[in-house]
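Hi support team,

I submitted a single chain yesterday and got back a structure, but I'm not sure I'm reading the token output correctly. Could someone confirm the output below corresponds to the sequence I sent? I've pasted both exactly as they appear in my results page.

Thanks,
R.
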Amino acid sequence: MTVTSISLRGGEMDPRKFFPWIEKITQLDGPNILRLKGIIALKDDPDRYVVQGVHMIIEGDHQRPWKDGEKRETRLVFIGRELDREKLERTFKACEA
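Hi R., thanks for writing in. Yes, this is the structure output for that exact sequence:
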């Protein structure tokens, strides 16, 4: 099995779409997700939200406020086997605010 990484970048995320999406991805593809981590820019949230996970276990928390001039973008990396890049990119984009 080949281990690959998929890096996703986007703008601010809609929390009502993002959280159900990340839960679903980790439940469906969890056995193949060796690691995931990211910094999430949530709409109307002054803090950076940091998320990390292994397989089906995922956790996240507010980290610190976004700094003045800091680009509010979402960056998320999946490391795993047999990950569907097209599906991840498409469904991730659908979570943008």
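A quick pointer for reading it: The chain is about 25% helix and 45% strand. Let us know if anything else looks off.

Best,
Support desk
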